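Hello Y.,

Per our agreement to keep a running log of every chain we model this quarter, I'm adding this entry. I've kept the format consistent with earlier entries: sequence first, then predicted structure.
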Amino acid sequence: MAWRTTEDAVRELLETDDSINIEPFIDAANAVTDYIVSQDSDGILSSALKVQIEKYLAAHFYALKDPQYSSKSTGGASGSFIRAQAGQGFKATDWGQQAVDMDITGTLGKRRVSANWLGKAPSEQTDYVDRD
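Predicted structure for the entry above:
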């Protein structure tokens, strides 16, 4: 499907060199936005929201690869970067969090977590002191 956002719109959110290709990040954002739209059975997402979600997701994906400054200084040449936290999903960056907040369907905010016990039932377990 065609992009909903533009490279210029995504670049407005980021500090990036114009020579850096951000098309792959927009492609990824477009695929995720397409999925969100497919889950919107009630049709509650407006065209404007779809554009904004895609734009912020593209910025999120870009920021995962090239962390953005959270602060910088010129006199002493210091800087701090926004670092994505592992396991945070779309909430790992400010832009991803913004996309989650704009997704009124709740699709981006859903996390599927499951766990299965692969060991023996307690009645079949061997006490530690009895193991070889």
